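# nightly structure sweep
# worker-07 picked up a monomer target from the shared queue
# config: single-sequence mode, recycle default, output format = structure tokens
# input follows
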Amino acid sequence: MRAYVTGGTGFVGSNIVKVFADRHGATVHCPVHRFVPDDTAGFTTERLDLLDDGAVQASVDGFDPDVIVHSMILNDFAAMYADRDLAWRSFVGTTESLARAADRVEAKLILVSTDWVFDGTQSGADEDTPPNPVNLYGVLKMASEQTAVLSAERAAVARVSAVSGMHWMRDSTPRVQDGGFGYFVTSIIEALEAGDPFGVWEAGNINMVASPSLASECAEVMWRIAADASAAGVFHCCGAGSVGRMELARLACEVFDLDASLLSSTPPDTGAEGAVGEFPIPYDTSLTVRRTREVLGYEPPGIPELLARFRHERSTGELVAT
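# output follows
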């Protein structure tokens, strides 16, 4: 399989590249904007502005993929709100451009989306639950989902949620605990391994309940979507079950053999990166995977198993064998 992966040098994207190339032997190509990793073994890159429609069409034509996985985002909430035209073009515009490119080469388009398309009151939302986002990021992702499925002949949406895991193309990342669940488990592990206390944010204005996932497992679900010619529509890439922030923190301590007595509950740091209080955040974004099970025959791992796989990846630098 030939896979064209946007955002392939990002967190989730790096897992898509590794799973597709290393585990499944796909030929992977990644358009990059600024960051080019030192080690590009197993995939190729080219510098490309995804906002340049003509350049995108030429790039996709040149690689001639079987699947395009669109994981690139404008990962800056302040920038989204400050320049909404740029935000729209970065999310919806690039999706529309890639949909047309996918049709030109008869490829499937897989859009990576998020549990934040829901408003935080739709506990256990499944793949057919109507989205109702409460912030601009959720609106942009919802609009991108609609653009993908209505514009491309062969399209699927892969929603990820509360993602933990390895960033395979950077040794470290600047993000720490924020109003969502991204990097939450990693922040706990790094603090407790150093013997430092960790205050778990708990409040009514942040994402308090979610369905945790592992980035590499999300990528595995996307591989199944890519490999199944009939797989289309919305899929949920997450583990089995939902959990609160403190419960997830304690589970991480159990799996990683860390001292849970160093955990405490604390209000969010309103001055921290993540802009808590500056924009609405959905409270409960727990998901279920009814349709994903039915269409892909996929049984999601439980949360302890996902954490155990994360520990394996972190200690060995390798994916779990399948």
